[in-house]
């Protein structure tokens, strides 16, 4: 737990480049456990994995916005970064939008490289209305753990990547007997649709990577490429590549690693599509 209040986990070395991993809506930092096993073998520095406000073990907020989320993350991360060390941020879905906000430099954290994975770009009016309705309503209560888990996995588009009986799902819901609900605060969804073009335009990181799984039902790769022609499409992946197979993310992590080691653009390995 940081003094800012966010729950976070740290790993790796304290004297190398810092990688911040930000999870998506209704998830928590535990979604990155598989990626952390790769980092332990291949990343030369440390990593920080927060639970975003209103998620996991982090406290809830009275109101949510991308700026407020970025402020909380910046304050928490800054406590654990030595002066002069480069900071690289990889965020998924909601966390990807927060990552881009952090990379604007408006929140006091200097971000060298940012990667936003699976951030939904195009929203219909109906989709916006549905999310706003869920965010404004009291938390849904379910009669069983399994029903609550299925709800969370469906809303978060994790159902094709996560076993409902897994230890991760035990952290996504809370309850007892016949009263179960999502651990995450449904009001956290009130951030609504991110202004992805605006966030990209405001980014001051040395390098920005937008990415999506080839079969992502929320962040259609074709739409992402129209916005950002250099976007990376992860072959065979869905909305949650890090949960399907953490190795899906290695092209992104490898690219960030080479940036962290200050290799010239010509020396970087190309991202696979």
Topology, element by element:
Elements lengths: L7 E5 L5 E5 L10 H10 L3 E5 L15 H13 L8 E6 L1 H9 L10 E5 L7 H12 L8 H11 L11 H6 E4 L2 E4 L13 H7 L4 E7 L7 H7 L4 E3 L6 H4 L5 H11 L13
Parallel strand pairs: 2-3, 2-4, 4-5, 5-8, 8-9
Antiparallel strand pairs: 1-3, 6-7
Give the structure's gist in a few sentences.
The chain has 273 residues and is of the alpha/beta class. Helices cover 33% and strands 16% of the residues.
CATH architecture of the largest domain: 3-Layer(aba) Sandwich
Largest sheet: 7 strands, mixed
**CA radius of gyration:** 18 Å
Instruction: Give the number of DSSP strands.
Output: 9
The CATH superfamily title of the largest domain: Alpha/Beta hydrolase fold, catalytic domain
Largest sheet: spatial strand order = 1-3-2-4-5-8-9
Task: Provide the helix percentage.
Answer: 25-40%
Mean pLDDT across residues:
93
Number of domains: 2
Strand content: 15-25%
């Amino acid at each position: 737990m940081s003094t800012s209040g966010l729950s976070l986990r740290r790993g790796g070395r304290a004297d190398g480049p810092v990688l911040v991993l930000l999870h998506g809506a209704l998830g928590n930092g535990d979604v990155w456990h598989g990626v952390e096993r790769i980092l332990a073998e291949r990343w030369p520095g440390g990593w920080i994995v927060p639970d975003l406000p209103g998620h996991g073990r982090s406290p809830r907020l009275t109101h949510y916005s991308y700026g407020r989320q970025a402020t909380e993350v910046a304050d928490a991360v800054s406590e654990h970064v030595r002066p002069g060390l480069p900071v690289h941020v990889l965020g998924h879905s909601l966390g990807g939008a927060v990552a881009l906000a952090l990379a604007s430099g408006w929140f006091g954290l200097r971000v060298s490289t940012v990667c936003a994975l699976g951030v939904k770009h195009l929203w219909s009016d109906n989709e916006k209305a549905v999310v706003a309705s869920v965010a404004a309503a009291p938390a849904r209560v379910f009669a069983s753990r399994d029903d609550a888990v299925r709800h969370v996995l469906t809303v978060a588009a994790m159902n094709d990547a996560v076993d409902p009986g897994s230890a991760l799902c035990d952290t996504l819901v809370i309850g007892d007997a016949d009263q179960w609900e999502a651990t995450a605060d449904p009001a956290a969804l009130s951030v609504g649709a991110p202004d992805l073009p605006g966030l990209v335009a405001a980014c001051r990181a040395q390098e920005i990577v937008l990415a999506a799984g080839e079969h992502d039902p929320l962040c259609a790769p074709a739409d992402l490429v129209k916005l950002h022609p250099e976007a990376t499409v992860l072959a065979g992946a869905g909305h949650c590549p890090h949960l399907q197979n953490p190795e899906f993310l290695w092209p992104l992590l490898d690219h960030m690693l080479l940036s962290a080691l200050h290799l010239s653009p010509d020396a970087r390995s190309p991202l696979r599509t």
